[in-house]
Amino acid sequence: MQVSILGATGYAGVELLRILHNHPEVDIAYLTSEGSTGKKISDIYGHLRGIYDQVLISIDNIEKIAAASDFIFICLPHGHAMQVGKALENTKTRIIDLGADYRFADTATYEEWYKVKHIHKNTARVYGLAELHRQEIKTAKIIGNAGCYPTASILALAPLVKQHLIDPSTIIIDAKSGASGAGRSAVVANQLPELYDNFKAYGVASHRHTPEIEQELSSLVGKNVILNFTPHLLPMARGILSTCYAKLLPGVTAEKVDDAFNQLYASEFFIRLLGRGAYPTTKNVRGSNYCDIGWQVDKRTGRVIVLSAIDNLVKGAAGQAVQNFNIACGFDEKTGLSMTPMYP
Amino acid sequence: MQVSILGATGYAGVELLRILHNHPEVDIAYLTSEGSTGKKISDIYGHLRGIYDQVLISIDNIEKIAAASDFIFICLPHGHAMQVGKALENTKTRIIDLGADYRFADTATYEEWYKVKHIHKNTARVYGLAELHRQEIKTAKIIGNAGCYPTASILALAPLVKQHLIDPSTIIIDAKSGASGAGRSAVVANQLPELYDNFKAYGVASHRHTPEIEQELSSLVGKNVILNFTPHLLPMARGILSTCYAKLLPGVTAEKVDDAFNQLYASEFFIRLLGRGAYPTTKNVRGSNYCDIGWQVDKRTGRVIVLSAIDNLVKGAAGQAVQNFNIACGFDEKTGLSMTPMYP
Amino acid sequence: MQVSILGATGYAGVELLRILHNHPEVDIAYLTSEGSTGKKISDIYGHLRGIYDQVLISIDNIEKIAAASDFIFICLPHGHAMQVGKALENTKTRIIDLGADYRFADTATYEEWYKVKHIHKNTARVYGLAELHRQEIKTAKIIGNAGCYPTASILALAPLVKQHLIDPSTIIIDAKSGASGAGRSAVVANQLPELYDNFKAYGVASHRHTPEIEQELSSLVGKNVILNFTPHLLPMARGILSTCYAKLLPGVTAEKVDDAFNQLYASEFFIRLLGRGAYPTTKNVRGSNYCDIGWQVDKRTGRVIVLSAIDNLVKGAAGQAVQNFNIACGFDEKTGLSMTPMYP
Amino acid sequence: MQVSILGATGYAGVELLRILHNHPEVDIAYLTSEGSTGKKISDIYGHLRGIYDQVLISIDNIEKIAAASDFIFICLPHGHAMQVGKALENTKTRIIDLGADYRFADTATYEEWYKVKHIHKNTARVYGLAELHRQEIKTAKIIGNAGCYPTASILALAPLVKQHLIDPSTIIIDAKSGASGAGRSAVVANQLPELYDNFKAYGVASHRHTPEIEQELSSLVGKNVILNFTPHLLPMARGILSTCYAKLLPGVTAEKVDDAFNQLYASEFFIRLLGRGAYPTTKNVRGSNYCDIGWQVDKRTGRVIVLSAIDNLVKGAAGQAVQNFNIACGFDEKTGLSMTPMYP
Known about the structure:
Four copies of one chain form a homotetramer.
Chain A: E1 2-6, H1 11-20, E2 27-31, H2 41-44, H3 62-68, E3 71-74, H4 81-87, E4 94-97, H5 107-114, E5 126-128, H6 130-139, E6 142-145, H7 148-162, E7 172-177, H8 192-195, E8 200-201, H9 209-221, E9 228-233, E10 240-247, H10 254-265, E11 271-276, E12 291-298, E13 303-310, H11 314-329
Parallel strand pairs in A: 1-2, 1-3, 3-4, 4-6, 5-6, 7-9, 11-12
Antiparallel strand pairs in A: 7-10, 8-9, 10-13, 12-13
């Protein structure tokens, strides 16, 4: 398969390269970057030296890129992918967008939260979270790769929502992410002296990943879910831990909770259920495509607490994209994704 | 004032020394340590070299220590302070226990959560959180210094609970702490390679600070509060951020929420209200006795989210102890506590 | 004393404020910032809220500032202080420049390494390292505060150079600094994901602190010293450790080495000698004005290895500036500088 | 190939498992641990869950283990491997020891620095650094895998020493390592609050890796080399950076230095030469088997400065062991080692 990456010099872009390097079915056609056109990618990222020394081109060459590519991974800020999607409408090239442009079934929601007009509304797109949408991904032309926080949060809550074990109106998601999630642009607030040995929340009651989580949980439960989602910034580079709370519906036992997880995820390779009373850590999944999940039932309060951990750049971005790509191509879903987490 | 510290070689003990060094009214009488008796404290902690080179003695000398001390700060694991308290019952020496032994009005709660028998039940004690118990602290013989997580969490929620603006049965506290909170003993799980670049929850639905928070909030609202408290371990040494959620009662506006904070804390020096829509960071209070508080009202869900940040070793331990000590002695509450936070 | 800070919103500027807050003889007259004129400094740095809420003005007001200030601390990039110095030539206002403009006795050296023309050459200036230049500082109009790396390195080597115990041509200084040394401007290379969990050298054989170290050591030994200085960037915010190597001259014993340190620094409050075989750590001096020094003599190679640790923002910048200020004002040198290091 | 790991629950042991998981020619026969016998390795290390759930056995089963294993990797503290080596003398099982027991050609040196008697002196062993000893590794029965610091330091200096471009008596190696190098046992000094945001030297003029480096450089230059080696502890988990200094011999130009590196390493896959004036970072090699090398010639002092970076657990331990294993088995040297470094 010939694949190209638009926006290859972001963290998701180079993580894709790390993963694809061990994918036996993939050749890299083109890599784009507007800020570093004409340079080798290994000039920007020294860790790629001798592995990928390809010269970066501009996205202006999109036609040439599309002609040479079976698949295009888009790692651009929101607003750009829909332009690419529209431009390639009549080509055979398939698209996996790691941004938000194609994540929403209802583009009005996208427009409301992202404050931009969607220019490619009436086209089929699939929400790129394999554990919930595997069938549709197989034949999709455009896949809107699930966001990082949503991946961790939806996977944590899906079994309980789907089995109607919790009251969806009581869902609270308190999530924490490493700073690579903020991307690579130069901002004073993300300088090491500012973030190191520091911890804070941001986007309280207003983060754009909220409607994405609500869309998927609403779809699972069959009614409109409104929830609280609070992201925080960890003083580290990679990893997301999502701590989710909800009231159990009357009569729901801890065993029923256990069953819900075991049933939904029994055959999911990338989901590791730690069980009730065991809790995930970000380091246990670092560098891998796993999502580790543990939970507890609090009899005092009648709540269930579900914790999930992913590497935001792998299962939360590039790894998930490759998982979706594998499904879309008919490859074994694990191809190129058999990395053991890196510990310590 | 002559003061002594029992268990001076823990992190809270040496933080007390750091603070007391700039307290004009304090002389250190004795420092105890069972593991390092006979050594200088600066042999254990090089940062104290030339500042405190006092020799550590054993707690076996408690009578001599008490005779020489107006105040004793106890920085020992729970279960020890009540023995000291009992032994000094008929002395004039006053006690501030940084552990849990004297935090509970109902010692049955203590016994249930700490799994030890309380041997000093029928004695007066005050919960050492000045913002809520200033009057009682003034004359207390025994002060049970508030815990680190409880300090951050109670201060965040007290105005809303006291003014009956939230439904107490909906309270969820998602808290995160630096690793110094786990103390200084050698444990594989706390080695740097294990905790660094890592994040995890622990004590889910079972942490001992839960009943302490519930005691204070119950007392404020006038009925029994049961809540969820989930602690997490940050990959850093100091700092607690507490993210608190609750449903607003019908008709409660954002302005009423603002008013509640402004009223309760208007004259509190150590509480800095950032206001609605502004959020605290742990680094902004590092090394200081401040508790920074910000909040948001989410109209979509009808919840209020309150965030508070403290330095767990200062306002969460040693600084709070000195604040209580100042009140108990009739000194200006800020004496020795005018440190500007250390940033970056 | 009325003091003003030019460039108050850099890390050295706010560290000055942290220290001066506890200085009984100081009032802040003006704070300048070109990027944030009109804002409160506590809007830029939340840790200062309620402590310093002063409005920032532009350096364009330099005449008004000078008229109101006994002392001006300059925390601007090199090239600016000499303009201020020249403009205030005929005023009574004294200057402590935390940059490089006034560190060199020979301005040709400055011009060669800093690639700018010096516009204020023929004026008296003192190298602001109190342990070596205390007398001259007392009456100086312009003090060129010693650089961070030079402070750690010069203090480590001064006793051996002064006593002619080492061959100066064999000096190698391998130094490591936290990232706050790079300042606060937004640079991709200093974003947390780039620096965190990472370590690297920079400025190899070309760093501008080299001639500053050479100037002082040359002056001590009475001949021209040329040496190697290699800075590295630690994945943390504060702290410098300098590891210095040199060949002992024939016949120099370990005891003579010990004596040299003890003699030169016997009455220096801010220098803590750990002795032979004991080594400093950056955390043991964090937040304080101490310079901790330890050393070893390697009989196998005939070399002495000296290690020194400072907080780059305190003894390496703001603390040293206040120490110089105290000397210049005739105050006790320790005034405002009695902070115990913050550990852990 | 059947391979077993003795001491599988150390950091080197689990890193071997991470690497071998992607090695197509390897089956794991047995894993030993004395502290966790009977447990699954994934009970100790959650990141291995679902990947390696094998039960740990005791080394008491060494005969059974040897009978089932073509190769045994030994990840035990020094002193143990020589017992295993002796016990397996008459078997066909080959050994790669990741400890120090078989690194020294002259066991007297081992006994002097490690303070233990060597019980397996008169047996052939190869120093396991492929770039220097590839031929001998091919047929070796016992391979003493090169140490972490020595790997980085020897590779940095080998070209210059071998080509007689530097004066070996002037070599100084200032090395810095992440804390995983200290292993996994519980020690107060290695707790996160102690090491985090901290930096220090240790083992000054006395570290056991000194004679190992000297052995290899002496062998290359053909005379006895004595040097200074100073290790430091970085506040991070993985990675070594070695900064090496030496005087160039008269007439040696920068170009000759460049040539030496290019010649010796032209066909070495795992050595990436960054060239003169470019410097390695630990993150650029993290998780990979690369050793990145850059250098500078300082005309002012006549010294060359060489910097090398490795991941101490990969090229400094497990990766190097697999590289040696591949050579010894006749496999492609890169088998299982094609991991792209993990960045950021």
